[in-house]
Design brief:
single chain, alpha+beta, Fructose-1,6-Bisphosphatase, Chain A, domain 1, D-Maltodextrin-Binding Protein, domain 2, eight-stranded mixed beta sheet, five-stranded mixed beta sheet, binds 6-O-phosphono-alpha-D-fructofuranose
């Protein structure tokens, strides 16, 4: 039997009693998935498609923009503007929100995305991805212009999230709040075919994803947790763990969803509020997937999806994955606090 396509999966989700997928959301997800197909075809051209390298410009984050950052951003904007399912969009690559032009109908959803996560990997042919998060526009936004404030909702308000990962295969990993499902792009048919799901994070896979070069920024508890596992210390855990760091959150999170482990990008312990990863279109969508797969996602202390955002490009510390590993970190922090 042919694997289930994304279209069939979404239609069957729509039919469910608790319908986690109303028709407008189904259209949104299919539109994003179709845009990700265009992105993967652009990426795979590489140097032959003049899509590598930088533009010489900086984005709102102050990061040098890759050609593909802008290409993917435009693909996602163009694909989603006309469908009538969105009230507005927000992207890592745009300083403020992108409202739906008046020539198109507006819908009830807000779409947030990081068009190319880990874009510095593209020039050296390593995996990158597109991360997306879906919120409902506040009811009081009907009949008025959507504002940035309407996007500042806790991650617990997400109705869907997912990512495309552009690696040896092109995959779409998605949750509508009723489990996490993986689809593989069938490049001959152009269809997304379900290849795994519901995903559950395996416990006990002793792999730590962290950038050790940022050690000076970590809290004492995170240093003790990491040093005991992948530091140079002798101790009961020495030699039991391995380390992985791909430079692309999508690739590291996909590995954790498929075989377990833990991912850490802690905030800078020396400068409160200073962190690397963005809350609205990186940490929240990934936390939704991780929790739906039975994992835990915290900012180092508290649940990420409870955080009340204060800005569109706000950053946050991230520790997520195997619930036993996250619990071990929290225990470390608790012991140190009570010492
Ligand atoms: P560093 C990519 O730029 C990103 O936002 C995430 O995808 C990735 O996990 C992290 O930053 C890599 O950061 O400091 O290791 O370059």
């Amino acid at each position: 039997m042919q694997p289930i396509t994304l279209t069939r999966f979404l239609i069957e989700q729509q039919r469910r009693e608790d319908s986690a997928c109303p028709s407008e959301l189904r259209l949104l997800i299919e539109t994003v998935a179709r845009a990700c197909k265009s992105v993967t075809f652009a990426i795979s051209k590489g140097a032959l498609g003049d899509v590598l390298g930088t533009l010489g410009s900086e984005n709102v984050q102050g990061e040098v923009q890759k050609k593909l950052d802008v290409i993917a951003n435009e693909i996602l904007l163009d694909a989603n503007e006309w469908g009538g399912h969105l009230a507005a969009m927000a992207s890592e690559e745009m300083e403020t929100i992108h409202r739906i032009p008046n020539r198109y109908p507006k819908g009830e959803y807000l779409l947030l995305f990081d068009p190319i996560d880990g874009s510095s990997n593209v020039d050296v042919d390593l995996s990158v991805g597109t991360i997306f998060s879906v919120l409902r526009a506040p009811e009081n936004s009907a009949g008025r212009e959507v504002t940035e404030e309407d996007f500042l909702q806790p991650g617990s308000e997400q109705v869907a999230s997912g990512y495309a990962i552009y690696g040896p295969q092109t995959l779409l990993v998605l949750t509508l709040g009723a489990g996490v499902y993986e689809f593989t792009l069938d490049r001959e048919m152009g269809a997304w075919r379900m290849t795994d799901g519901p995903l559950k994070i395996a416990s006990g896979n002793k792999e730590v994803a962290i950038n050790m070069a940022r050690r000076a920024q970590w809290s004492p508890a995170i240093r003790r947790y990491v040093d005991a596992r992948v530091g140079c210390e002798e101790g009961p855990l020495a030699g039991e763990y391995n380390m992985r760091w791909t430079g692309s959150m999508v690739a590291d999170i996909h590995r954790i969803l498929k075989r377990g482990g833990v991912f850490l990008y802690p905030s800078d312990h020396r400068k409160p509020g200073k962190a690397r990863l963005r809350l609205l279109y990186e940490a929240n969508p990934m936390s939704f997937l991780i929790e739906q797969a039975g994992g835990t996602a915290i900012d180092g202390e508290a649940r990420i999806m409870d955080a009340k955002p204060t800005g569109l490009h706000q950053r946050i510390g991230v520790v997520l994955g195997d619930p036993e590993e996250v619990a071990a970190l929290l225990e470390e922090a608790g012991q140190m606090a009570s010492a």
